[in-house]
Amino acid sequence: MPLGPTLDVIPYVSADEYSVQMTIIPTVTEFLGYDDPGKFVVQTQVGGGTPLTAQLPLPHFRLREVVTSVTVWDAQTVVMGGLITDSVSKTKDKVPLLGDMPLVGRFFRSESSQKSKKNLMIFVTPTIINPDGTRYHSDEEMPFLQSIPPRAVTQ
Fold it and tell me: What are the residues facing 71 on neighbouring strands?
């Protein structure tokens, strides 16, 4: 099973040949640990001998996925965010034996918690290319640049 971030992009060049329609599917898969198997016991029998029994710890994963569609000009960048993770880790520490003593043991123990927040940012820049690998359009050919008036030069 793939762990960590994966990105699936399904691009289509629009009929105008200047824009790209994309379906973008970022996925983050995290391994959280093993669940308590509880009463679930695996049994197997090999070669007619005595059955083998074992408790099977089941893996626990977290899957976060977003599906979005966007249309963007050739060689322009799409920025996506929002796959945010908040986590709190708690740490307990103690001095052996002294931390277990009643009443005075609390002076030999400590507890702390640490918060962390992560935001996954994704940048996708589609570029339409020719079969030989060169760009299909130069920057000067793009329609959005032709509608912008040239900058006035002031002195």
Answer: 21
- Helix runs in the chain, H state only: 143-146
Handedness of CA 7, 12, 13, 19 (dihedral sign): negative
Closest CA to 1 of 34, 36, 41, 28: 28
User: Helices (H) and strands (E) in the chain — how many of each?
Assistant: 1, 8
Is the pLDDT higher at 116 or at 22? 22
Which tokens hold the place of 52? 């083998």
Each residue of 105-142: pLDDT tens digit?
Answer: 888 888 888 898 888 899 999 999 989 988 888 877 77
Measured distance CA(155)–CA(152) in Å, rounded? 10
Rounded to 5 degrees, what angle do the CA atoms 62, 65, 66 make?
Answer: 155
